[in-house]
Fold:
Amino acid sequence: MNSRPNLQLGFPYASPSNIQTKINSEPIRLTLDASKVILGAKYSHSVDLWVAYCYWQNKFGLDHANALSCLGNAAGSCTEQSLYTGIIVKF
Structure:
């Protein structure tokens, strides 16, 4: 019997039974043309405000609910969620 951990995909304890399809969304971005709202169409896209959301589940193909490398002290390490905002000013 082999007592070494399975190093498939470079992660310990990744076996075919806990490998899942990953869900990876590119940043989904909503933009508001603030200058057009405030100053009118003449100044369109001089100031844009935006918010973006990115979601990545089952990172590296590891099942976020069952893979040992995603549970315990590493809980949540196989799912990533990011929300960020920004402003673009054109001169």
Summary: The radius of gyration is 21 Å. The chain is about 5% helix and 35% strand. Helices lie at 34-39. Strands lie at 23-33, 47-57, 79-89.
